[in-house]
Amino acid sequence: MNQYIFWIIFSVVVISIFIIDIYVTDKRQGKISLKNSLVWCGVWITAALLFNVFLYFYFGRGHIKALEFLTGYLVEYSLSVDNLFVFLLIFKKMKVSPENQPIILKWGILSAVVFRIAFIVVGVGLIRLFHPVIYFFALILLYASYQMAFGGDHEVDIDKNPLVKFSAKYFKVYPNYHGKRFFIKREGKFFATTLFLTLLLIESTDIVFATDSIPAIIAITRDEFIIVTSNIFAILGLRALYFALAGIVDLFAYLKYGVAIVLAFVGIKMMLSDIIEIHIVISLAAIILVLGSSIILSIIKRKKETRKGERA
Asked: CA 262, CA 242: separation in Å to the nearest integer?
């Protein structure tokens, strides 16, 4: 099968699901419930796994591309969870109502897809042009791992955000606006709303996280098709994942440490790639073990805290 056919199949699948997701959400005209968000999380995860099965059988059972896709998807999805913790902080700080959060996430995710594809093309192109750049990418991953594990909680500084500062030069912000528009016209003048500033914060956050996620997936595979598809499947499921995460955030207390270990692992894997090749099966097993353990430990911690609260 020609690779163009793969791109067509992939595009039709993800665009169709995303349009249905957006239509169902917009039709509800309100806050997305935990139940609905969990359903759509299941839809996106199932779609990604079915696409993985398609790769598995088309290329032959046990083919490396299917394993690379699954490994890349797990890494990108776990990094996306950490990204969403920052989204929670941004929405809280900007006082965005739950009813208005879906529209920001919709446009934020669509633009994130564009940015990610651009970063992937540049990243893979740089490695092909100048191979030693992989060591720079490896250092980025190791630094990101350290920051995630020991850098403390995420902070959102609105006043110092470059995109917000840039927009402030050209737009006046209309205070106390509670609608769903990014721009409004009052007394013949155009104003930006807090929703627009929130969107800029979401975008800048995703750009920062892309500097970690793109090297991470490149450490697993250099196949642009696998990199792009695993990234987009993870990104497009973020909207549903966000509202599910907002409802069960306490179950992920140790996840950031698991993600930090994964970043360190793929960073070391990339650093040693010219000396020793770590098989994709080993990488996949290690990532599943680390992420699974961090989630299990988080659940155990939550149960212990609940029991202490009941005794008190």
From this structure: 21
**Which residue segment(s) compose the domain that 100 sits in?**
3-311
The total number of structural domains that make up the chain: 1
pLDDT of residue 94: 83
Residue 62 token pair: 């046990």
Alpha-carbon distance 81 to 131, whole Å?
Answer: 31
pLDDT tens-digit profile of 69-81? 999 999 888 887 7
Per-residue pLDDT tens digits for 147-187 = 888 876 666 666 677 777 777 777 787 777 777 888 888 87
Angle at 198 between CA 295 and CA 184, to 5 degrees: 150
CA distance 54 to 148: 34
Say how far apart CA 175 and CA 95 lie, in whole Å.
Answer: 12
Instruction: Return d(Cα 223, Cα 180) in angstroms, integer.
Output: 40
Q: How far is CA 229 from CA 61, 63, 245, 287, in A?
A: 20, 17, 23, 19
* Residue 145 to residue 258: CA distance in whole angstroms: 10
| Amino acid sitting at position 16 | S
φ/ψ region of 55 (left if φ > 0, alpha if ψ in -120 to 50, else beta) reads alpha
- Answer positive or negative: Cα dihedral of 209, 17, 63, 294: positive
Q: What are phi and psi of 192, to 5 degrees?
A: -85, 150
